[in-house]
Inverse folding.
């Protein structure tokens, strides 16, 4: 049985994990880039050092023993703890100083499923040496900033997949179609409003998203273009234009009677909302810390429930 765990023990345990997850010695050769005989020698060495039969191999095929399964689970837990230790050590080493740059579109402060302000409070308390910079822009601009490594992450809606970027879903954002109280459609019952009537009024287009609403409207019917949610909100409040807004953003204007959703049970768009990072940057201490907070629910759980 092992006493102190050496580097050799860790290497052999990693071989064991690969063998188990590959389903046998021969299938593990490609992943480990070594001959099957070498894998067999490593496994025999590990079993000798542990004093445990980890797997059966022979004419009957490959099978992990019951005790081997237990060792496999414990080994996974060990490496998870080691990864966490390395992450924490990296944070200590850097003191989490410098500047955390976060990108996001406008209108996020009213989101009722994300608790960004509370999370930012947590970040400031946990990392007092770190500065925070928030860059607000369209999703397209934020994508470029991520690719160029000008920001660490973005909290944004996903309207398309972009090569080189990874998306961690946090929640969904519903968008409904609104008009202001002086708009011609405001007092018309939903059942009497047709798509043709809405198109005739020239719905607002989002300039940063191609064919965002083509499920409902002909793109040629757009006569007004915006690049920010607040711009759409102002046009809708003017009473001369109608367009999509996130439900959370529109709520206060709906509640005071300034705008209404048109055919809300039929005309709506749900988009995933989450954290976007550049692929391969997960080990950056600042980004690793953000992802850890997100996976722990710090951005999606009310502070009272944490």
């Amino acid at each position: 049985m092992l006493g102190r765990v050496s580097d050799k023990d860790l290497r052999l345990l990693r071989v064991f994990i690969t063998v188990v997850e590959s389903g046998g010695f021969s299938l593990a050769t490609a992943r480990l880039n070594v001959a099957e005989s070498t894998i067999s020698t490593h496994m025999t060495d590990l079993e000798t050092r542990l004093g445990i039969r980890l797997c059966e191999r022979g004419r009957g095929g490959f099978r992990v023993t019951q005790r081997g399964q237990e060792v496999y689970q414990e080994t996974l837990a060990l490496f998870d703890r080691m990864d966490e230790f390395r992450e924490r050590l990296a944070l200590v080493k850097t003191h989490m100083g410098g500047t955390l740059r976060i990108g996001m579109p406008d209108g996020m402060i009213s989101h009722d499923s994300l608790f960004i302000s509370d999370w930012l409070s947590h970040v400031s308390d946990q990392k007092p040496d770190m500065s925070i910079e928030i860059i607000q822009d369209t999703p397209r601009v934020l994508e470029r900033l991520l690719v160029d490594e000008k920001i660490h992450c973005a909290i944004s809606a996903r309207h398309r997949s972009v090569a080189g970027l990874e998306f961690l879903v946090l929640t969904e954002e519903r968008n409904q179609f609104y008009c202001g109280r002086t708009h011609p459609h405001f007092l018309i019952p939903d059942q009497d409003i047709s798509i043709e009537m809405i198109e005739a009024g020239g719905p607002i287009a989002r300039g940063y998203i191609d064919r965002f609403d083509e499920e409902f409207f002909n793109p040629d019917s757009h006569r007004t273009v915006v690049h920010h949610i607040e711009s759409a909100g102002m046009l809708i409040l003017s009473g001369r234009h109608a367009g999509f807004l996130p439900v959370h953003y529109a709520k206060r204007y709906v509640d005071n009677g300034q705008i209404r959703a048109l055919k809300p049970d039929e005309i709506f768009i749900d988009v995933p909302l989450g954290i976007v990072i550049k692929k391969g940057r997960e080990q950056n201490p600042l980004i690793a810390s953000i992802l850890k907070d997100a996976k722990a629910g710090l951005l999606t759980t009310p502070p009272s429930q944490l």
Remarks:
- The chain has a mean pLDDT of 89.
- Residues 66-94 form the longest helix (29 residues).
- The two ends are 41 Å apart (CA to CA).
- The CA atoms of residues 99 and 131 lie 4 Å apart.
